[in-house]
Amino acid sequence: MDLLDWYRGRLSSRRLAVLVRHMPRDSALAQGLHGNTAEWTTTDHLLAAVVDYLAEANWMFATVNRDEDAEPLEPPAPVPRPGAAAEDEASAASVPDSLPALEELSRFFS
Question: CA torsion 19→21→25→27, rounded to 10°?
């Protein structure tokens, strides 16, 4: 598909908007808009939460069953998630939530 088809009138604005909205997660557009968070699905986030809870439960079990004179155990570190850094939040805040208007698109392709 050629984006010039929109300019030539062979591709409607609605179809172009639908194509842009439903780009795959690994597309350059999704990576540019959302950074590393685009790579993680809901399932990935849930699995990371399960790993964190399991590590915490194991840490609690080991802490409760350790010798009283032993040094305290370090709590487990959570699985790093994408987008947790402040710079990712700042870049996500600058991304517009809506698609560009028809006039903006026509100026871009002119």
Answer: 50
Query: What is the C-alpha separation between 52 and 46, in angstroms, rounded?
Result: 10
Phi–psi pair at 66, nearest 5 degrees: -85, 165
Q: Half-sphere exposure (CA, 13 Å, Cβ side) for 98?
A: 5
Q: Tell me how far CA of residue 80 lies from CA of 14, 30, 57, 85, in angstroms.
A: 38, 20, 18, 10
Average pLDDT over every residue of 56-62: 94
CA distance 79 to 97: 29
For residue 78, the one-letter residue type is: P
Question: How far, in whole angstroms, is CA 89 from its chain's centroid?
Answer: 11
* d(C-alpha 52, C-alpha 57), whole Å: 9
Q: What's the predicted TM-score (pTM) here?
A: 0.52
